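Worked problem 6 (solution included).
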Amino acid sequence: MYKAPVEEIAFTLNHVAGLADAVEIGRFGDLSADLVEAILEEAGRFAGNEMAPLGEIGDKQGARLTDGEIKTPDGWPELYRHWREGGWNGLTAPEAFGGQNLPHMLNVAALEMWNSASMAFALAPTLTMGAIEALVTHGSDALKEKYLAKMVSGEWTGSMNLTEPHAGSDLGVLKTRAERSDDGTYRIFGQKIFITWGEHDVADNIIHLVLARLPDAPAGTRGISLFLVPKFLVNEDGSLGPRNDVFCHSIEHKLGIHGSPTCTMIYGDGRFGEEKGAIGWIVGEENKGLACMFTMMNNARLAVGMQGVAIAEAATQKAVSYAHERTQGKAPGWSGSGMSPIIEHPDIARTLITMKALTQGARAICYACAHATDMSHHTEGDDARHWAERAALLTPIAKSFATDVGVEVASLGIQVHGGMGFIEETGAARYLRDSRIAPIYEGTNGIQAIDLVTRKLPLSSGEQVQGFLGELKQIAESVAASNDTAFGETGDRLRAAIAALETATHWLLEAQAAGNATDALAGATPYQRLFGLTLTGCYLAKGALANTGDGGAEKRVALCRFMAENLLSETSALKDRVVSGAASLQAARAILA
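Solution. The predicted structure is:
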């Protein structure tokens, strides 16, 4: 059974991502190290003791739809009630609406633990948190007053309604329409697909945020507006009123996350209400809805990155446990009686350490992204701009690299189990099935690569990424200057990886400046992995250099060295794919004709 790695999470938050320094100088008010520890311990306890036991039940039973009503797996409504009563929904929400206004770093750490326990369950609060942030940032005072307190408490959940059957990721071709009403509300008509937790039985009301187009809207993404559409209308006294004209038509039968209802939602066909049209309220300005939704989407992209970390952690724990118990053959040097545990075999050990290195690297990247977000909110002027750009730069890497790692590590976990990994009863297969959606939703990882290369590298004319590369070089130089022989060739390997990343970065910036967008985008995905692997090496090194006196330094140095000497060699090949792969791609296009 999953056990939250609270000590590892706390170490990464404090000594790699930067939480300890921020707390020490009072960046987050009266937040103390003791309070951070208490929150992490309790989140870990809840994840391991209450959520994890119901994860397997959720996978086996799935969400079930009957006559437009969804029943979640056995025990999930009670689990959600316990989760809500614990106050977890409002960790980062404003105090004015019942939240705790804690740093985003603590929330993503808790999200990791909850997603390791049950990714399908954790999706419900994840979507609600994103909807809260969108309303806090863009909602009118009236909408905030009516909806936020109960969303922050978790009494009501939120959903994000973007795509449609014909649209996919191209939101500019959305057909869902909104019509103005005389009373200042809007009537929404259309169909939305892939709506996570769009209908369920764990909360009293569901607050849908829906993208739709007004009759006189400009074409494309410039003509999209965002609307708040509740499942149940809300009376002036805050009580629930009649059912709104929105319902779940069907749910998807998916590869994984079975307990999470993925819905096709129908708005405005007359099934409920006195007249057709789901009643909604504008969020932000008309035709500016995509900018409002991106507030929610950016929150969700980091949360999805945490899903990759969470699955990788859970898969690694299961594989290590199995490798200690499973005996087969005799490993070199084995002196015990009978067969040796498979963890003694070099190939299994190499696989497990690879899983650990990738997991901890992805964790550090996501936590560093959350730290940058927090700093952008707790600084001013040029400092705030710097941290906002750093968060923007790290978001596509956190989302894509961490979710790719989730799939990779879950697959390696099955390999460690051998044939038993292919059998559902062991539980290893669920992690691979659940993880596979993460590189797809909230903007596919290919879209993240496009965003990274075309929008994030040019921030401040390239100065943001150049400054970041400078920080990574300092880490490599600190390793080289440590004179600790336990690091082996880590310093040189880090320098080589950073040099490869720097070469690829300069090439991409120059290609775009010269108008060679096709060439730049041909290397965008390998560049994304190049960045992620280099960051993994550097962040593991940063942790290994930390002098905390907790007794874990030797293991951290060993893991850092393994990463540098076994996995960072890939960065050279990735650099070559970025700077010289475009021509071969163009030449090979004829194969697809």
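Discussion: The mean pLDDT is 96.
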